[in-house]
Amino acid sequence: MIFVKNLNSISNQEWKTSEKYPGVRWKFLVDADIDGSKGISCGFAEVLPGGKLTLHHHAPDEIYVVTNGSATLNKDGELEEIKKGDVVYISNNAKHALKNNSDETFGFYWLFPTDRFKEVEYFSDE
Ligand SMILES: [Zn+2]
Predict the structure, then answer these.
(1) How does pLDDT run across 6-43, given as a tens digit for each residue?
(2) Ligand 1 centre distance from Cα of residue 103 (Å)
(3) What is the pLDDT of residue 20?
(4) What is the structure's pLDDT at 125?
(5) Is the pTM of this model over 0.85?
(6) How far is the CA of 26 from the centre of ligand 1 (A)?
(7) Angle formed at CA 86 by CA 39 and CA 6, multiple of 5 degrees
């Protein structure tokens, strides 16, 4: 199975949000529940100015690929500015958070080594 997608081709998919993550919205691009893909999954998230992904961890490893803007990455207490073009590796159960302190939207793709996003259980560390 091989397919190509982008944000335009999934423009009819609604943005998802959660009260736990103010100013954050996301869509799914590669997910077993959508196209029957397996082994890896991918989505795209935007963090609006002032928005944040609160401190959390999960069992699967994760990768972020930053496509626009900049944000402060919390690496289990250590802060690092990340920006467009950066790739972030997060090992299993490492606590992490993101905060957009800039005045432009921060965007990134995330990847999980799971068939579907639904399999990733989020544990809050706030
Ligand atoms: Zn995560």
Answers:
(1) 999 999 999 999 998 999 999 999 999 999 999 999 99
(2) 23
(3) 87
(4) 95
(5) yes
(6) 13
(7) 55
Cα of 45 to ligand 1 centre, how many Å? 11
pLDDT (0 to 100) of residue 13 = 97
Q: Which CATH superfamily is domain 23-124 in?
A: Jelly Rolls (2.60.120.10)
**25 in the Ramachandran plot: left (φ > 0), alpha (ψ -120 to 50) or beta?**
beta
Distance 100 CA to ligand 1 centre (A): 15
Mean pLDDT (whole number) for 63-73 = 98
CA distances from 84 to 42, 71, 114 (A): 18, 9, 25
* 89 Cα–ligand 1 center, Å: 10
* CB within 8 Å of 113: residues ≥ 6 apart: 39, 40, 60, 61
